[in-house]
Amino acid sequence: MSLRNHFLQHIAQTSPSPIGLEMARAEGIYIYDTNGKAYLDMISGFSVANIGHSHPKVVEAVQQQAAQYMHLIVYGEYIQQPQVAYAKMLTDLLPSFLNCVYFTNSGTEATEGAMKLAKRVTNRSQIICFNKAYHGSTQGALSIMGDEYFRNSYRPLLPDILHYDYNSEEAIAAINSDTACVIMETVQAEAGIVKPNKEWIAAIRQKCDEYCALLILDEIQAGFGRTGSLWAFEQYDIVPDILLLGKALGGGMPLGAFIADKKLMDCFTYNPVLGHITTFGGHPVSCAAGKAGLEVLLDGKFIEAIKRKEALMVELIQHKAIVKKRSCGLWMAIEFDSFATNHAVIKKCIEKGLISDWFLFNDKSMRIAPPLIITESELTEMCRVVLESIEEVMSYKV
């Protein structure tokens, strides 16, 4: 049997029609299939590969750490240099009371840990979250997912969860003395790149302070420069009580984290002891890779160029078939009239060597989120191919 047949038979399928490309290697902004064809990764592995694929410094960090030690006991007993060094680096880049890191295996698990911490700190159960929000797919994270289509088959889910529209006044009014936390993406990803109104998110922060509720900001996709600043919340002049990270956090290796003040995090040490534990979270190889990846991102000054690249992308991607464009840094949603049009354009892009996808809660919009290391000339070529793909699809529809 071919590798494709083994894939279909032995790997759990989450959609009826996977992209199905057989990949051989990846380097920089490109992925190469087994025939040697290069594909520009226009979604960066869903924002995991912010510095591109297989960066030599990240590969070297992985190899060196794997040669020293891999899994020991991740939490509770041993002091491990990769964890400590990465946590120190992250907290040095954050406001002073985001000073304690709990590493997890993924962004979803960071969500779960943060929800538990909010309940433990406040002794409340009510969680306010948002429609068209995505924070992961485990049962707790699914409970706060903002789409009933994906939730419905797995009920009953967590009680005391309230969903509101993003940017709505109703969400602000709902925060009260029963609220444990408000959890939200600083920029909504799977809704198709939806930014908050600055005054609205500031009012959310103020209302949380008024009622001693925690504000949890999910920057699992938005963090690490994607929006044009290292952390997206910096653009809104607020600071969360808990910050969720993942995706690019591991430099290509699996890693997530939630970050809070140590006074809050210490609630996990008693009543009960071992209030939150994980076997592989903060794996030393992942932490070494993540730290190396963040060093590459900062040393290369890639973030400083993001807004300029965003402006170039917005300027170049112009077509009468585009209903709407939404962008935030090197992150764009191109909305068409229907899923059928969007799917056809994405398929055409893949044929031409560009990997894209749609958004979970906005299937009429095509995702563009290339590695932050992409040059302006590469970005210009990418935009040219996108427009060419749109034009060919629209010519078929005439």
What do these coordinates show?
A hairpin with a 4-residue loop joins strand 11 (324-327) and strand 12 (332-335). The longest helix is centred in the last third of the chain and has 22 residues, at 376-397. The chain is 37% helix and 17% strand. It is α/β, with parallel strands linked by helices and 398 residues long. The chain folds into two domains: 3-54 and 301-397, Aspartate Aminotransferase, domain 1; 56-299, Type I PLP-dependent aspartate aminotransferase-like (Major domain) (Aspartate Aminotransferase, domain 2, 3-Layer(aba) Sandwich), CATH 3.40.640. The protein has a seven-stranded mixed sheet, sandwiched between helices. It has a four-stranded mixed sheet with strand order 1-2-3-13. A four-stranded antiparallel sheet has the order 11-12-15-14, covered by helices on one side. It is globular, with a radius of gyration of 21 Å. The mean pLDDT is 96.
